[in-house]
Write a structure and sequence with these properties.
By secondary structure, the chain is of the alpha+beta class. The chain has one helix spanning 4-38; strands at 40-44, 51-55, 60-62, 69-71. The protein is rod-shaped.
Length: 75
């Protein structure tokens, strides 16, 4: 059906396509994960001195330990 050099070339192209597909899907997954972690805001509780994170759009967020509402840290 195929001569050996052509079959080897087709096999190599298929293997390369599979690795390229795996690389692209993992890269997209990692990029999505990085973006969700990057869009976090840092908060510091003035009552119990705990650092915690929350959604980036929130201005006030209660402390998970003591419940005191704290403003977002600005650098």
């Amino acid at each position: 059906m195929f001569d050996p050099p052509a079959a080897a070339a087709i096999y190599c192209l298929l293997v390369a396509a599979v690795f390229l597909g795996l690389w692209l899907t993992s890269d997209r997954r990692d990029h999505r994960r990085f973006e969700t972690e990057r869009r976090q805001a840092a908060f510091h509780c003035i009552r119990c001195d705990q650092l915690y994170t929350g959604a980036a759009g929130s201005g006030l967020r209660p402390c998970p330990r003591c419940g005191h509402p704290n403003a977002r840290l600005r650098f």
